[in-house]
Write a structure and sequence with these properties.
Blueprint (H helix, E strand, L loop, with lengths): L1 H19 L9 E4 L5 H9 L4 E4 L7 H8 L29
Length: 99
């Protein structure tokens, strides 16, 4: 979706050193203003390991994104695996396939 495209663009545009520091072990804290459902913050946090805070008057709706994460949905596409910095969850369906 659009948030995934934007997340990958952020990583390409600014580079991993910007987000993780020169050693790769100093993750930046992200503040997502008007973050809506929380999809971008969820992806940056769960898929890339970046701590995120969402500022929005509405409640976050993370159930769909969490289910996609648990089922390996962010790891499935080989073309985008270079944008994934967190290993697939242990309870997922194997090699990124839905259970």
């Amino acid at each position: 979706g659009r948030c995934g495209v934007f997340r990958r663009w952020l990583l390409d545009e600014f580079g991993t050193e910007f987000f993780f520091g020169p050693s790769g072990e100093e993750p930046a804290s992200i503040l997502d203003i008007a973050g809506g459902k929380g999809e971008l913050a969820f992806e940056l946090s769960a898929v890339n390991g970046l701590p995120c805070t969402v500022v929005d008057p509405r409640d976050l709706m993370l159930d769909v994104f969490e289910a996609k994460w648990r089922n390996g949905g962010y790891h499935r596409n080989e073309r985008f695996r270079s944008y994934v910095h967190v290993p697939m969850p242990q309870n997922s369906g194997g090699e990124g396939e839905l259970k």
